[in-house]
Design brief:
- The protein is mainly α.
- The chain has one domain.
- The chain is 67% helix and 0% strand.
- It has 20 helices and no strands.
């Protein structure tokens, strides 16, 4: 006779199931309040400064002036409020003048939806190219990534930059040098810290790609100057000089300059940046990685050496987590970068030194990811697939 008794799951089976579900449960537990926090209000935040810049540019005025009601003024405990004017380069004014034509709150809602859409497209492109990110856990982690939701909260432009970076890296790997170069040139016009990627590829003698980047950057800035006038670049540089130092001190800044300035030793930041660049060049010259890896490392270093690296910039590390092997340090970096920003804000009342170090949580995640370069062996996902 057939045994009709119901078999109870073993304790080992339950333990395995619980272990498999635990990462998902943790991500959901962190992400649900994070999404709620990101959509907690219709405040324009950084987008307000961008719309102000676009409106002023449309009127033929100084696009970087602080005297506009939409300019964002963030507030943190024990840090004075500052005018967080738009410090993006003039090439962004094409987008900002277009957005400034709409009703501000409606534009803010739409831009936040567009941000999520652009990010999802980037995740899909990376998941199709690299199996690691195509797993259920990989997709869940990518969608739970706090860098996305902080970008949504501040209504920033980082998802747009991420999509451009993903396309450039994929085209580079596929041998489409001109397309990759043009995209990198446009990105450098929008975010000057990414010019470090082009410089690294120039050292790596990717001449065709670098030439395309240079031409694209010149055209992008030339067309911008023709539209808004060369004086807009002087206004941008002046705004960076006047408002940049105060913004470097803000707690959300994850750059080396931000950390050392908050600790009161800005000169140490210069020394650390020099050491970081020297060690990175040493790693590249001794390991001779693929050029896509060189570009990714340059992106990572640019986030640490840039004067301003807000939490939303962390989305630019997504291609590295998709392609690099998850060694201990890479995993540790992923864990640190998965800590939601609202938890960091919650620790505002801690002791001053602790608060400064906790505020730099994103910076620690970047440092861990950079240190993973010196783990042995150091291979990317694509090189593993080719049996390198």
């Amino acid at each position: 006779m057939r045994d009709t008794r119901v078999q109870r799951p073993s304790l080992e089976g339950l333990a395995r199931a619980a272990k498999a579900l635990l990462p998902y449960l943790l991500l959901v537990a962190l992400t649900v309040p994070t999404i709620y926090w990101a959509f907690r209000s219709d405040d324009l935040r950084d987008l307000g400064s961008f719309l102000a810049s676009g409106a002023l540019a449309s009127e033929g005025k100084n696009a970087y002036a602080p005297n506009h009601p939409l300019v964002f003024r963030p507030e943190f405990v024990d840090w004075p409020s500052v005018d967080a004017v738009n410090l993006n380069p003039p090439a962004f004014l094409w987008l900002f003048t277009l957005l400034a034509r709409g009703e501000p709150l409606g534009v803010g809602r739409c831009w936040r939806i567009v941000t999520v859409g652009l990010y999802i497209v980037s995740v899909v492109l990376l998941a199709r190219a690299y199996p690691r990110l195509s797993t259920p856990l990989g997709v869940t982690w990518a969608l739970a990534f706090p860098g996305l939701w902080h970008t949504v909260d501040t209504a920033q432009v980082y998802a747009l930059i991420l999509l451009g970076l993903v396309l450039a890296l994929l085209w580079m790997e596929q041998g489409h040098d001109v397309a990759a170069g043009v995209m990198l040139g446009v990105l450098a016009s929008l975010k000057p810290n990414l010019a470090l990627v082009i410089a690294a590829l120039l050292v790596w003698r990717c001449r065709r790609l670098v030439f395309a980047s240079a031409v694209a950057a010149l055209i992008a800035n030339g067309v911008t100057a023709a539209k808004f006038g060369w004086s807009v670049y002087a206004d941008w540089l002046e705004a960076t000089r006047v408002y940049g130092p105060a913004m470097v001190l803000l707690p959300a800044n994850a750059s080396l300059a931000g950390l050392t300035s908050r600790l009161g030793v800005p000169q140490l930041g210069v020394a650390l940046i020099a050491i970081l660049l020297i060690l990175t060049v040493y790693w590249i010259m001794t390991h001779r990685p693929q050029r896509q890896m060189v570009a990714e490392v340059a992106v990572l270093v640019s986030l640490l050496v840039s004067p301003l690296t807000w939490s939303g910039y962390m989305v630019l590390t997504l291609p590295m987590f998709a392609r690099w092997r998850w060694t201990r340090l890479v995993t540790a970096s992923a864990v640190v970068l998965t800590i939601p920003f609202w938890i960091i804000i919650w620790l505002q009342g801690a002791q001053p030194v602790v608060r400064v170090l906790v505020y730099w949580m994103r910076g620690w995640g970047l440092v861990l990811l950079w240190c993973s370069l010196f783990e042995t062996p150091r291979r990317s996902e694509s090189s593993e697939q080719r049996g390198a």
